[in-house]
């Protein structure tokens, strides 16, 4: 159902799931689905999310998104050594992108903040950084 491209396909998959969930007069799974998932299908069924900005990330789980990105580089025929090199190169590239973003000239800095707070300030707005600082001050 998650990857249904049209509302009709979603309905078809939903009906199939309903018939499977009602086997042997057991309805607990179907009742759970209707109560918790059926009413909010606009949030998780692809057919209803087509017009939303998703920036190429169609999952609601960032770990699965990362695995999808890694699969672009990792192939089944690669040796363990080559796979490890690919993973380390990916990590190095991401670290360099992060460093360039955080330490880029012109990023916001505040002399009263310590380094971690300036990193947060460079990635967010002054308001968010101030909210984070108050939490650190309380702790």
Automatic annotation (TrEMBL):
Name recorded for this polypeptide: Uncharacterized protein
Superkingdom: Eukaryota
PANTHER family linked: SWIM-TYPE DOMAIN-CONTAINING PROTEIN
InterPro entries: Zinc_finger_SWIM
